[in-house]
Amino acid sequence: MIDLYFAPTPNGHKVTLFLEESGLEYHLIRVDISKGDQFRPDFLIISPNNKIPAIVDHMPADGGMPLSVFESGAILLYLAEKTGRLLSGELRERHVTLQWLFWQVAGLGPMLGQNHHFNHFAPQPVPYAIERYQVETQRLYQVLNKRLERVPWLAGEHYSIADIAAWPWIHSHQRQRVNLDDYPAVFNWYERIRTRPATERALQKAQQV
Ligand SMILES: N[C@@H](CCC(=O)N[C@@H](CS)C(=O)NCC(=O)O)C(=O)O
C-alpha cells in the first residue's frame, strides 16, 4: 500500500495518473496547501521541501521499513522501477524518457508555474514578469509540439512517465493563456491522454478530496 500526500494540483495529478495506470493500491492523504498543512512537522519529515506530492511505500522492494519519497520526478521514477511500468528497460528508450522527465521537472513545470503565479496570484501586476513567463511558456509549448510532431509519445513509441509528468501542466493550458489550437500535435497528444480510463479515474479521485 502506498500513502500519497496529495493536493489537486498539476504536481499532485502526476502521481495519481501513474497509480491509476499501474493499478497499485494507494491511499490519498489530502494536504491543504492553502491552509499551510505542508509546514506541519509530521509532513516535513516526509517532504522536507514543504511541497506535495510525497509518498510513503509501506511495502518497499527490499522488504525493509516504510520508504518515503518526495519530488514528483523522483516519485515517478521510484514507482516505475517498483512496478516495471511506464519506463522502458531498453537503454536508449529509457534515457530518452528520463530526458523528457527531467525537462518537465526542471523546465516546463517551474516556468508554467511562474506564468500561473504572475497571471493569477501576484498582489500587483508585474508586466515584465508576465511577459517573460508568457514568452517562455510559448517556447516550451513549441518544443513539445515539435517533439510530438515526430513521435506519438515523449519517449517515442510508448506512453511513459515523461508523458505523465507533462500532461497535468498542459491540462491547465487555459490558466496559462495558451490556446492549444496553436499547437496541433500537443492538442492531439493531450486528448489521447485525457480520454484514457486511468486519467479519467485519477481526475475523479482528485475531485473527491
Ligand atoms: N519540484 C516539486 C514541486 C512541487 C510543488 O511545487 N508543489 C506545490 C503544489 S503543485 C506545493 O506543494 N506548494 C506548497 C508550497 O510551496 O508551500 C515537484 O515536482 O514535486
From TrEMBL:
Residues 1-87 form the GST N-terminal domain. InterPro entries: Glutathione-S-Trfase_C-like, Glutathione-S-Trfase_C_sf, Glutathione_S-Trfase, Glutathione_S-Trfase_N, GST_C, Thioredoxin-like_sf. Residues 90-209 form the GST C-terminal domain. Pfam families: GST_C (PF00043), GST_N (PF02798). One of its GO terms (molecular function) is disulfide oxidoreductase activity. Belongs to the GST superfamily. This is GST-like protein. It comes from Kosakonia arachidis.
